[in-house]
Amino acid sequence: MKSLKNIHLLKVTLLFFIFLFACEEKKISEKSTWSLINEEIFTPNCANCHFSGSTIARQSGLDFSSNNIYNNLVDAKPKNLAAQRDGLVIVSSEGGMKGLSKSYLWEKINAYEREHFLSDHPEYGQLMPPGDNFLTDGQLQFVRTWIEESAPNLSSVADEILLQNTNKYQLPNFTPLDKPSNGFQLHLKPFEVQPDYEKEFFVYTDLKLDEDKYVNKIEIEMRSGSHHFLLYTFDENTPSNILPEYGEIRDLRDENGILNITTLTSMQYHIFFNGTQWPSLDFRLPDGVAFHLPKGTGIDQNSHYVNYTDSTMIGEVYTNFHTVEKSEVKHAAQLLNLSNTAIILPPNKVTTLEKTFPVNEKIFLGQVNSHAHQKMTEFIVQIVGGDRNGETIYWTDDWDHPPIINYDPPIELNKGQFIKLTATYDNNTNKTVGFGFKSTDEMMILFGWFYK
Which pLDDT tens digits describe the chain residue by residue (452 residues)? Predict the structure, then answer.
């Protein structure tokens, strides 16, 4: 009898442990893979731009703050027309490699296929999240596994341990651009940036245009360490004694850090043309839209490198202008350059600045991107007035690599409406900071393009 009691006790004990481990297993997998993706990947990385009512949510059709986001992703048609033509859905439930290859979302987040994305699918827009804020390797593998397992809503199909891998894709080393087949190339040859020094200079370059040209694509490639690279033309009323000589290198500051007044004076006649804070840019205008470069136009190249290291840095920049025939152009793009120079940031204080710019005639806004320096913590662009009053069309908290947001179709703005800029800065120094050209000064600029 004693042995029978022991056997019975053993059975009860085994059943208890089976129940205990079953409960523990259930506890580990109580959240589905989709829930984890939504809560730990999409919400922190996507929802700050793709939120209800935002232009980006409207443009992409994706509102990551919505409770219906799963149904808006899985087997849903993307708004991007090129992706539609290629037969993609946002997330395919077909499963396996085939399902992965049919998922537009995977194309947009897979940073390791960046070169393929930029060269083969430029019409898909930019990689997400924007800037160089790539998802971690673990997050990518977690999402990939979910898609390959047919993107289920409720079940657990990916190991949560994957999310512990925080490695990220790194942008490739500098590679010179090949010359465009239709167009022309500019090249700032290698130059030195001394240790613990900011080097910013201008070179006015003769494009040698013997006829009007129409540019619909610009590529820029820079060595690492660049704060920005900008292209300007000059106002047609620039005095001849102010217009720089072609090929002359004009430093913004001398070796003692003192501003060069001659260079500063010429900057007052600048008209912004294009540029980037990213080390690599592939900027394309929609079909039928191009920038007009009149015969005889020159371009003022502005390079700014920041070297905080104790060794000499080498800078270098390539720029390609791709041109189309005039007969292909329906709309001449114009440059947007909205700037607030009234910047005063008290020491050890967070300050928010606003400035509103009027729209004086109907325009179609195709692209915007912000420009600020390292104390900027948030930059917001909103529409004031009209049917889209209060709509946020741009947001970033990344001063170093701000996103470039394209609008397809362009946003129609009418006379009487306004574009409102709101920027927040955290000045954690003991000195007042104002507008200026050094990275330790501040700026509040919105660049972009539009047509009438």
Answer: 444 444 444 444 444 444 444 444 434 447 899 999 999 999 999 988 888 888 788 888 898 988 999 999 999 999 888 899 889 999 999 998 889 989 999 999 998 887 677 666 767 877 888 766 899 999 999 999 999 999 999 999 999 999 999 999 887 778 999 999 999 999 999 999 988 888 999 999 999 999 999 999 999 999 988 888 999 999 889 999 999 999 999 999 888 888 899 998 999 898 888 888 778 888 889 899 999 999 999 999 999 998 877 788 899 999 999 999 999 999 999 889 899 999 999 999 999 999 999 999 999 999 898 989 989 999 999 999 999 999 999 888 878 778 778 887 899 999 999 999 999 999 999 999 999 877 789 999 998 999 99
Structure tokens at 166: 């925080």
Q: Are residues 308 and 351 in the same domain?
A: no
- DSSP class per residue in 128-171: SSSTT-PPBHHHHHHHHHHHHTT--SSS--S-GGGGG---B--P
Range of the domain at 179: 174-329
Query: Does residue 169 belong to any structural domain of this protein?
Result: no
Domain final position from 164, 186, 209: 164
Which segments of 130-174 does DSSP mark as H helices, in order?
Answer: 137-148
The total domain count for the chain is 4
Last residue of a domain, one of 164, 187, 215: 164
| pTM, rounded to two decimals | 0.60
Residues 405 and 436 in one domain: yes
Peptide bond into 410 cis (omega under 30): no
